[in-house]
Design a protein that fits this description.
- Belongs to the peptidase A24 family.
- One of its GO terms (cellular component) is plasma membrane.
- Its EC number is 2.1.1.-, 3.4.23.43.
- Among the domains are: about 1-90, no CATH class; about 185-320, no CATH class.
- The protein is globular and about 70 Å long.
- The two termini are about 45 Å apart.
- It has helices at about 5-25, 55-60, 75-90, 95-100, 105-125, 130-150, 160-185, 200-215, 220-240, 250-265, 270-305, 325-365, 370-375, 380-409.
- The chain contains 14 helices and no strands.
- Helices cover about 70% and strands about 0% of the residues.
């Protein structure tokens, strides 16, 4: 075996142990560096020998040395998965090919793989994807995609312009899917408790304004024009503040206007520009709103830690097709994969997630344990799986699918 691949696997094992810490502490709002690792049952601090990945779990036969309580098999499985991801990256980008100049790019991919695994674990546990992980991963990809070529270093990522456009377009596509799915589940009514001062209505309005901005832009400037004008939507809403909570148009009206605008643009041969503008507008507004919501959540958490009363969260009364964490994670997917790769990843995620959901529902029905919570499955792990498969084999999968469509025609 290539020594570099073996070294990458060992590094993955070590980082995999830390990934377990991330997945456990981030949702709880705890520091990921202090205090040192301890048994969750007896709180006994673990010795260095007990922190050796996989081996310590096997030697202790899956039990704590202090209280003898069982240690979940998930811990060594996560460590082995991390080792496999790191080894896979080292295989895809061998050191002999990338050279020492390529090590920063490989380090970026290693970090991205760790955060993707963290997303999977947290979503499995909490059915949420924390904004901190999402925006850290997105920032890492955007910064790395720009800095590596600027420093004259080889980059395993897409060209920076494609990274940015992929992030915005993918986020916009997922945001609109989430808005339309939620509207269908609400049976066309408005939300019971829209978020203020920014809400999902501003994401929809950003899509509409972005489409208009793309149509009036100069040729070739549809995307930046749409991003610029749609960014003004949440910014203006923030400046207006809580004194002006009523949006210009209801969310359902805006969502109804979008297909009308797209069809109207198609009659003038501008459907491509309109679609680009709508997706860009939705993605830009969604990312800005997401950053603001993240800031407000952190401020509310800090206030709660000080013992101050926080406003009750009643937004859960509105049914959602899928969480907005998935929408923000779509920006990560688009930044890493680009537009075509994102489509492949979503297709793979939907197919694999649906197959698992049907199989799981059959098992639960036979066991008589079908509840509303049991029917819900987190989408994040399947998006991560689709992302990894698309990153590794996206182009062959896309070519196979296009060939299949051609044969069917």
């Amino acid at each position: 075996m290539d020594p570099f691949i073996l070294l990458a696997a060992v590094l993955g094992l070590l980082v995999g142990s830390f990934t377990n810490v991330l997945a456990y502490r981030i949702p709880a709002g705890r520091s990921v560096v202090h205090p040192p690792s301890a048994c969750p049952t007896c709180a006994r601090r673990l010795s260095p020998a007990e922190l050796i990945p996989v081996l310590s779990w096997a030697v202790q036969r899956g039990r704590c040395r202090g209280c003898q309580q069982r240690i979940s098999v998930r811990y060594p499985l996560v460590e082995l998965t991390s080792a496999g991801l790191y080894a896979g990256i080292a295989t895809l980008f061998p050191l002999a090919a990338v050279g020492t100049d390529g090590l920063p790019g490989l380090a970026l991919l290693f970090a991205a793989a760790t955060l993707l695994l963290t997303v999977t674990l947290i979503d499995l546990d909490t059915k949420t994807i924390p904004d901190g992980v999402n925006f850290t991963l997105l920032g890492l990809l955007l910064l790395g995609g720009y800095a590596l070529p600027a420093l004259g270093l080889p980059s395993p990522l897409l060209p920076w312009a494609h990274t940015v456009s992929g992030a915005v377009l993918a986020c916009g596509a997922m945001a609109l899917l989430a808005l339309y799915a939620a509207l269908l589940l609400r049976r066309g009514r408005e939300r019971l408790d829209p978020s203020v001062p920014l809400g999902y209505v501003h994401v929809a309005l950003g899509a509409l304004v972005g489409g208009i901005g793309a149509l009036i832009a100069q040729p070739g400037l549809a995307l930046p024009s749409a991003a610029l004008v749609s960014a003004a939507v949440p910014v203006v809403a923030l400046l207006r503040g809580r004194a002006h909570l009523t949006p210009l148009l209801p969310e359902r009206v805006i969502l109804g206007l979008l297909p009308v605008a797209l069809l109207s643009a198609a009659r003038w041969g501008r459907a491509g520009d309109a679609l680009t503008g709508i997706l860009t507008g939705a993605g830009t507004a969604a990312l800005i709103c997401g950053l603001v919501w993240w800031f407000l959540d952190r401020r509310a958490a800090a206030a709660a830690a000080r013992g101050e009363d926080a406003a009750p969260d009643t937004a859960a009364h509105d049914p959602e097709g899928f969480g907005f964490g998935d929408v923000k994670f779509a920006a990560v997917m688009g930044a890493l994969l680009g537009g075509p790769g994102f489509l492949v990843a979503v297709l793979l995620a939907v197919m694999s997630g649906a197959a698992f959901g049907v199989f799981r529902l059959i098992i639960l029905r036979r066991a008589g344990h079908v509840t509303r919570d049991a029917r819900e499955i987190p989408f994040g792990p399947w998006l991560v799986l689709g992302t990894l498969l698309s990153f590794l084999w996206g182009q062959p999968i896309l070519n196979w699918y296009l060939t299949l469509l051609g044969a069917g025609a």
